[in-house]
Amino acid sequence: MMPHFPYQGPVLGTIAALVCASIAALVTRKVIESRDVAPKEHYRLYRFANTVITVVTVAAIIAFWSKIFEHKGQFWGLIGAGLAISLREPLLSIAGRIAIFAGHMYSGGDRIEINKLSGDVIDIGFFYTRMMEIGNWISGDQYSGRTIQFANAQVFGTPVFNYTRTFGYIWDEIRIPITYASNVKALSDILKDVGREYTQEFLKGAQKQIEKMQRYFMVQRFEVEPDVYVKVTENYIELTLRYIVDPKQRRKASSFIYAEAFRQLRERNDIQIGSTTMDLTVHPPDSEAQGDAQTKAADNPTAAVGKPQQMQDTTTQSEQRIIGDGKPDQQKPDKAA
User: Fold this and answer.
1) Are residue 74 and residue 157 in the same domain, yes or no?
2) Residue 226: exposed, middle, or buried by beta-carbon count in 10 A (0-12, 13-18, 19+)?
């Protein structure tokens, strides 16, 4: 008769849980691939399902092995205490991964900013999110070449700025200063025409996204047409063009608008670029203000404020005047008449 194996139940349960997890992952992948969704949504659904299957499988394995302990409460207490102390950050990162996918915070390909780190998300793992960095020493929103990796737990209590998730465009501005005598209306018309020329291709798409946002969020209607604003400063008049742009094309958009606007400015004589100016008046040296040699010789600043002198200790003299020095007073001689 073969001896009884005490861990037969947990071992078989573990094997069964792993087999079921593999089958569930395969079926889930087939179902997701059969759906006609965008690549970003496909990535999010697959990662989210993978996370749920993994968490459920681990929980089932722990439950199977808990049966070999006589006191289950003691077992779960030890497991909970150990996980809470030693695995706090990894568990928070797993919870953060679930929150990222379930809460639609961001997905692969989104451009985000978190803790002053900006980039395009390339992968969301169980513990870390990886993204291609933009900015830093690069003046525009373009890749620096570095890969950023941060813990998923950072999404708890930290603002996450998503450039592309809910509304796929952002607003940008360019500023052009001109002199007071320039034709403000002419430059305003030029900027509006150039802005419309650039944004006309995706204005319809932006309008549709706004309508979609209004079905799910309390978003007021806002204008997406390019507009120009005028500001008068102490040195010039500043015209600001506000327009929408694809977040990943921001630098190219501003470069195109600047180039086209300046091309048209060269053809006009009534618009001059302004700048900060300063009036400088130069006076000849004043001999009287400088002072002659006699005045300089007579002027002694040290004598005016006085030279510091050493303080004398008068404590002993004060005591003698109050209590006396114990000697009979000597008669002072009379002064000669």
Assistant:
1) no
2) buried
